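Protocol step 4 of 5: obtain the predicted structure for the target chain.
Materials: sequence only (see below). No template structures provided, no constraints applied. The aim of this step is simply to have a reference model before the mutagenesis design in step 5. Sequence pasted as it appears in the construct record:
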Amino acid sequence: MTVLEALLRPRSIAIVGASRRPNKVGNIILRNLLASGYRGKIYPVNPAAPEILGFKAYPSLRKVPGEVDMVVVAIPAEHVLQVVDEAAEKNAKVLVVISSGFSEVGRRDLEEKLVRRAREKGMRVLGPNIFGVVYTPWGLNATFGPSMILRGRIALITQSGALGVALMGWTSSIGVGLSAVVSVGNMADLGFDEISEVLAEDPETRVITLYIEGIKPGTGKRFIEKMRRVSLRKPVVAFKSGRTSRGSAAASSHTGSLAGSDSVYQAAFEQSGVLRAMTLEEMFDWARAFAEQPLPRGNRIVIITNGGGVGVIATDAAEEQGLRLIDPPEDLVREFRRHMPWFGSAKNPVDLTGMAAGPEYSGAVEAALKHPDVDGVIVLYCETGLVHPRDLAGALIETYRKVRDEGVEKPMLVSMIGGDETNKALIHLDRRGIPAYPMPERAVSAMAAMIRYKNWLDKALHS
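Step 4 output (structure tokens):
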């Protein structure tokens, strides 16, 4: 097992600083490992406790029997260096240093010594000043965040601990599944680029998201080179905070990283193929589309709606985002006409009118997806009394599966506007692989992000 493989798939974990007290970090991490279904060996280390949560505890890492792949460190900073020496004796591959009190409070010398000693002994360091690491396919939740995380295809690498913990809970609450969550904190050793390289090889991850405050001085060129290689394998979506001067100063004081000029980061993202989202919500909107849908072949998009107003809103957003709303060819117009009343519109956006129910939507969507002149479809719905939102969601799911089974690989994104039943329908769609959004602009934005990435990928592969 390589060093970086041990970060996501450790066969054994020692928790230095494990505690019997429920409100302590070392206790929460142990409980989360149990709750997440981790099946490897777990070794709590605490000199004052013979047993913790049913596990035999050890007075020191040296007393742990056999080798340990991952050592989670949750003790005061001044004692961490001693753990490095003991971890080396156990042939550990990676140190997950939860402990704070390093460069973020001015103790850069201690942090540098930690990394130098670990690297000399063949180990890598995640952190310090982090909340831990999650890899759901392995049943790994070595964090002091929420215990239950939905399994999915989106990986999150975050520089902020509190925000990362909050996002773990938030994604579960809205039905977004994660493959991995990696807290990088001070990035004394492992950073965004190397962890992204590991996730680029991970078959359980389809898209990588980054919350970035800043990168270490002197690492910009390496970041661009490595992230470009990652982007050639999988889409990467980043949200970079600290865009303003005051925000930049706050970011620098938070993790000791270099926030720097926002234009420099923008250029780095563009060179490396990283898609930059301007809000956290946007980052996850795009990630959901990448995680579940095939990339569009081109930029020829059709919008299908039951309301003229929402169609106009989506059209404005599409033009602003650079989407090409095609004029449907005559054969497609005839197909659309079959699924709408005489006063409907077969132009783009295609207005099925408020009379539309499941069969009308299914017929129009199937026709659009199967047509060779269409690269992607955005479906809009305003809640009416003529069709229950859940019934419409079911019809869309069935239609999309039918088209996919016939070999058509095109993205379909949905936006549904309405009340509680509509919100339930959105979740129903999401959990069955069709990204659904409560506002049309968000669906348009996600489709545009997919097209931008496809354009960059085509250019990069042929340059």
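Step 4 remarks: Residues 1-131 form a domain with the Rossmann fold fold (CATH 3.40.50.720). The chain has three domains: 1-131, 149-292, 294-461.
Proceed to step 5.
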